[in-house]
């Protein structure tokens, strides 16, 4: 059966209507690719997600590299040099024009739009088989690397079905049952010191996994066993904080280092591999309106792009997909007489707003806060600004104060914008059409505008994996 024929036959059996309203399930369109069905086969797929990346984040990452390093970002250089197919993607979920990461990843992972908060799970409990399971059943190795918990929404959306993205402890158990080949990121609290007292690290090891919890252990891992790498109890540190703390930098790998290792572990498999690479903390930084965290993590994601493209260029059989799942906070560099100079002040930042606020002792003085900010971000807060921040610590008890929803991240970002000229439009996701770029075999078949659900079937088609699971 020709690939177009088997693709369409399987696609037409999917659930839902062909309309694109966000309240409906979406099936693939009759023609997902540009032109005829002829095209190159992708043996491997590397799917890269800068989570929560609005267009302003992509722009500022490029501006940052150009002003600081004298070169453009790897992502936009792919555009400048016309090395990729480029388009936009409609990421609406079944319940809203504004998706969350679970529904977004599920649209790619399961090929159906689901409600926000769900993972490949329909309104009546239907479960949609995720794409990494399909590829694994077809004989490929599969894996995910991320800077947030490996059980978080974006990696989970390619791997499992669940009625709630919040069931991360249960998702960890499903990973063990499904035996994915490489899973690396944060989320240690879902594997150890759990409410049910299960030690999932021990269970993974007994099941034949290499369990690694440091950069050195990761480097030593071989492809003789599947690899579980967990490097923090929650998300990994922001890149700016990671590189400026020698102890953390020695223990916790960067996203690019995890990506490189994951590729190395799977590249020799005879049937190929599929790898998701997520810059998950780009989204967390946008939620917190944390400009330095946002830009440095976007640049770290950009470093991972180079790893993927360099491999794909040499390999010749690898499709690299680069995208985002939704916008978040719509940040940007705003006009002003000192905008250029203010933006360049970010070059000297040593730590993020998260590090400043979450690490400040609640009973410390305003003067100590002023010193903390000046020493690590090189600007001075006013007395009124300091007083407002200190008061926020006093509004909550010691146990409840260190919470990103209670500390004054929004106000702190507004104060900081006076010195960086980087401002935010909110603290939540937005309905942006997301950037989409493809490099390698299959990229020539990409259309310039896609529905999120079409991506699922597109990947199956370019890999020539029949959707008959």
Structural description of this entry:
The chain has 469 residues and is α/β, with parallel strands linked by helices. The chain folds into 2 domains: 3-331 and 428-462, 3-Layer(aba) Sandwich (Alkaline Phosphatase, subunit A); 351-423. It has 21 helices and 14 strands. The strands form 3 sheets. A 10-stranded mixed beta sheet has the order 5-6-4-3-7-1-8-13-2-14, sandwiched between helices. A two-stranded antiparallel sheet has the order 9-12. Helix 9 links the parallel strand 5 (210-212) and strand 6. The longest helix has 25 residues, at 291-315. The relative contact order is 0.20.
What secondary-structure arrangement, pairings included, does this model have?
Elements: H1 3-11, E1 44-50, H2 55-69, H3 74-80, E2 85-90, H4 101-110, H5 131-137, E3 141-149, H6 153-159, H7 168-178, E4 182-186, H8 200-206, E5 210-212, H9 215-220, E6 227-230, H10 239-243, H11 246-251, H12 255-266, E7 273-279, H13 281-287, H14 291-315, E8 318-323, E9 327-328, E10 332-333, H15 339-344, H16 353-358, H17 366-377, H18 383-394, H19 398-401, H20 409-420, E11 422-423, E12 429-430, E13 434-439, E14 449-451, H21 452-462
Parallel strand pairs: 1-7, 1-8, 2-14, 3-4, 3-7, 4-6, 5-6
Antiparallel strand pairs: 2-13, 8-13, 9-12, 10-11
């Amino acid at each position: 059966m020709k690939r177009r024929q088997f693709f369409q036959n399987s696609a037409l059996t999917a659930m839902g209507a062909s309309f694109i309203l966000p309240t409906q399930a979406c099936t693939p369109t009759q023609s997902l690719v540009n032109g005829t069905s002829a095209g190159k086969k992708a043996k491997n797929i590397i799917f890269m997600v800068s989570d929560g990346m609005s267009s302003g984040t992509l722009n500022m990452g490029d501006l940052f590299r150009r002003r600081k390093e004298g070169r453009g970002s790897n992502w936009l250089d792919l555009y400048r040099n016309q090395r990729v197919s480029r388009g936009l993607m409609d990421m609406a979920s079944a319940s809203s024009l504004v998706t969350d990461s679970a529904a977004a990843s599920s649209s790619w992972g399961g090929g159906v739009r689901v409600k926000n908060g769900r993972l490949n799970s329909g309104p009546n409990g239907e479960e949609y088989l995720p794409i990494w399971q399909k590829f694994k059943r077809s004989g490929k190795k599969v894996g995910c690397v991320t800077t947030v918990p490996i059980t978080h929404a974006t990696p989970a959306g390619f791997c499992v079905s669940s009625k709630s993205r919040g069931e991360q402890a249960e998702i960890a158990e499903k990973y063990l049952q499904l035996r994915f080949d490489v899973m690396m990121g944060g989320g240690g609290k879902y594997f150890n010191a759990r409410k049910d007292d299960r030690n999932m690290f021990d269970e993974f090891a007994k099941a034949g996994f290499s369990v690694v919890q440091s950069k050195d252990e990761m480097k030593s891992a071989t492809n003789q066993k599947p690899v579980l790498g967990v490097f923090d109890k929650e998300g990994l540190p922001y890149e700016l904080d990671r590189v400026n703390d020698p102890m953390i930098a020695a223990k916790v790998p960067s996203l690019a280092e995890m990506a490189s290792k994951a590729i190395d572990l799977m590249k020799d498999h005879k049937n190929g591999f599929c790898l998701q690479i997520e810059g998950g903390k780009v989204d967390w930084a946008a939620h917190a309106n944390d400009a330095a965290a946002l830009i440095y993590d976007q640049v770290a994601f950009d470093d991972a792009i180079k790893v993927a493209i360099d491999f794909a260029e040499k390999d010749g059989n690898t499709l690299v997909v680069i995208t985002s799942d939704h916008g978040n906070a719509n940040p940007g560099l705003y006009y002003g007489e000192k905008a250029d100079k203010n933006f360049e002040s970010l070059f000297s930042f040593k730590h993020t707003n998260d590090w400043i606020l979450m690490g400040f002792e609640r009973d410390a003085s305003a003067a100590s806060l002023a010193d903390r900010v000046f020493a690590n971000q090189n600007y001075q807060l006013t007395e009124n600004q300091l007083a407002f921040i200190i008061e926020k610590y006093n509004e909550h008890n010691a146990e409840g104060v260190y919470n990103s929803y209670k500390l004054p991240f929004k106000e702190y970002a507004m104060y900081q914008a006076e010195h960086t000229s980087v401002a935010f439009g909110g603290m939540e996701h937005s309905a942006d059409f997301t950037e989409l770029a493809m490099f390698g075999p299959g990229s020539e078949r990409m259309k310039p505008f896609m529905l999120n659900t079409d991506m699922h079937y597109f990947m199956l088609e370019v890999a020539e994996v029949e959707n008959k699971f």
